[in-house]
Amino acid sequence: MSEPAIRIHDLHKAYGSVQALRGVTLSVPAGPVGLLGPNGAGKTTLLKLLLGMLEPDQGQATIAGLNPDHAKERLGIRQRVGYMPESDCLIPGMSAVELVALLGRLTGMPPADAMTRAHEVLDYVQTGEERYRKNEEYSTGMKQRIKLAQALVHDPPILLLDEPTNGLDPGGRNDFLDLVSDLGRHQGKHVLLCTHLLPDVERTCDHVIVMNQGTVVRQDTMANLTATSASVMRVETEQDPEPWVQVLTARGHQIHSLPKHGLLVTLPPGTSDADELLTLAAQVGVTVTAIEPQRASLEEAFLEALDAQGVLTDVQDLEPENPAGDEVEELL
Amino acid sequence: MKATTHTEIYRRYGGELRSRPAVERILGWAGLRMAFRRKLPALILFTPSAITALVGCVMVHLRFMLAERTAEAEGRAATLAARGIQELLGDTAENIHRFIQTEQFFALLTLAWYGSHLIAEDRRLSANLLYFARPITPLRYILGKWLTALALGGLTLMVPALMICWQAAFSSPDWIFLKESSWVIWRTIGFCALWIVVMSSLVLAISSAFQRKGLALMCTFALVFLVQGISLVIVQVTGNPNYGLLSLIENFQAISEWLFHKPNIGTSILRQAQGLGHQPAWNIEGSFWTLGLITFLSWVVLWRNVKRMEVIA
Fold first, then answer.
1. A187 to chain B: nearest residue by CA?
2. Which of A292, A302, A297 is nearest to A331 (CA)?
3. Gap from A282 CA to chain B (nearest CA, Å)
4. Which pLDDT band holds residue A330 (cuts at 50, 70, 90)?
5. Domain of residue A286, residue span
6. CA-to-CA distance for B110 and B105, rounded, in angstroms?
7. Residue A312 within any structural domain of the chain
8. Which residues of A touch B7 (CB under 8 A)?
9. Strand A262-266 relative to strand A228-237: parallel, antiparallel, unpaired?
């Protein structure tokens, strides 16, 4: 397994009386990683601490092997990291290509390289001819693309993306997530995607860190978090399953009805064999057309993690700006 | 399905990043380019400067031309007329001094207009998140912004003043201006440099304290003109002319008079009120100390605010 791109140990940060981070300790592995949490969980604070834009009250972090608390190492970090801020920070009066080239030069690129590279990354984020318009004339989607381009201009190995899909329409969001996914999975970038949108993480990341109220609640691979559960089966029947449901209930199975003759059957503790279900269905004359283990959604894992912390979080906090509709529900 | 073209492929950067890029120069030049991007303010702010410089050049040229004519004139009437006009035009040092006095106002307008947004806009838009995500230290960021302000001040004050000196050098017969009055050029450069350094530091410090360009602009004018008025009132009330040291305008006037050995053309309101005429109201060292203190305080404010833009403790 490759070396973690980011290591954090017992990081604390408070803004006055508000404790933003409470002893965060984690190792961020290589590859695309989702930093997931509701608004106010401390995600942006963590990113700013990693870039040395904030000073921690306690604890330390290393990113690309460098410590952001040391002034000299901080500058080294900033050459190795591409940061896409959440806020609308594009400088008015400049065109996208000018801004990206300027930031490339400020990172240490020669003028000609910076301009060539600006065009390359703007091509990559698909800005087209609009790159010559003034920054203040861009739509939200275009601004997000330009912010990604400026983070990529110096080809950094680590990318910190802060709420990159905020305010995007469904089409733009899909395109943007494709880019993030490509960068993380095919271009070898260590992407730390900081968001409160579960589907974004589910689609683009291989590893998930769940934060809430300034602490890391859970950290695992996406595969583990959404692992199939052998004790819950998703079943579809041809006819009305009511007779079968009665038999199963009598034998200790828990049943949840789904639309179109669908059922979610939880096997009794100690049972993992689904053959019995089929036998009982045949006995009552119900034809089973589909049966498969139920896969946990990221939202379930997320809520479970928060539940384990003893915190109830309103689901609305997780996806207030989900323009694609209620994808989380679809996943359930 | 959306077509994918070769342009959408991610390409690696094959070059090497410089460990210490010339951040100040890059930021300074970018700021200057942005300033001239908007044509109307540039036209409004730089035209008066250009016209004043042109008038200054013409006056200097006329003066030397008439001096030549006077020497060649045969008739008494012609000689007297030429001398009269010559006296009216004044000598070159006086012309440059007069020009600087007028030009300061236009330079202040230009510097305040452009300078007030240099840092305030970055704060308002959170553009500092873009800049300080790059290998930029607060000092180099300040120097970059300061270079823009210096260039703007230079373009409105120093360049036109040197144009007049240039004109004088070329219009004077046998390079007499360069031979006998070269001190005017050095003192012009010295005064303009002092003015630009002090005012650009002040304007940037004010810009760093606000998130709105308009507020920074108002604060700049308030500091210059309101303090001038207040110092006048204090001098009137107390009868102590040393309170004139509080005013930036008075200090610059005192220094320019000291440098060019010329009474100020209009004589400041303060000294008129005091009946001091062309006499300096205080020791000239006091003016240098005051301006030095203002510059120092400006840099303290600037450093504190920009440091907070980079790292929030």
1. B10
2. A297
3. 44
4. very low
5. 228-295
6. 9
7. no
8. 123-124
9. antiparallel
Count interface pairs A-B at CB distance under 8 A. 115
- If one counts the domains in chain A, the total is 2
Q: Let me know if residue A320 belongs to a domain.
A: no
Q: Does B19 touch chain A (CB under 8 A)?
A: yes
A322 domain residue, yes or no: no
Interface pTM, i.e. ipTM: 0.83
Strands (E), chain A: 6-15, 18-28, 33-36, 58-63, 81-84, 158-162, 190-195, 207-212, 215-221, 228-237, 254-258, 262-266, 288-295
- CA–CA gap between residue B213 and residue B220 (Å, rounded): 11
User: CA B30, B34, B37, B40: dihedral to nearest 10 degrees?
Assistant: -150
What is the separation of C-alpha A139 from the centre of its chain, rounded to a whole number of angstroms?
Answer: 23
Q: Distance from B311 to chain A by nearest Cα, in Å?
A: 4
Pick from A167, A192, A221: which residue ends a domain? A221
| Cβ–Cβ below 8 Å for B21 and A107 | yes
> Same domain, yes or no, for A68 and A179?
yes
CATH number at residue A278: 3.30.70
pLDDT digits (tens, 9 = 90+) for B69-102: 766 666 666 666 666 666 666 677 787 888 888 8
Which of chain A's residues have a Cβ under 8 Å away from the Cβ of B39? none
**Alpha-carbon distance A291 to A265, whole Å?**
10
Residues of chain B with pLDDT under 50: 1-3, 5-6, 265-267, 313
Contact A117 B7 (CB under 8 A): no
Residue holding tokens 């009868």?
B239
Q: Out of A221, A251, A268, pick the residue that ends a domain.
A: A221
The CB density around residue A4, as the number of other CB atoms within 10 Å, is 17
pLDDT of residue B293: 96
Specify whether A68 is located in the same domain as A122: yes
Q: pLDDT at position B266, please?
A: 45
pLDDT above 90: percentage of residues in chain A: 40
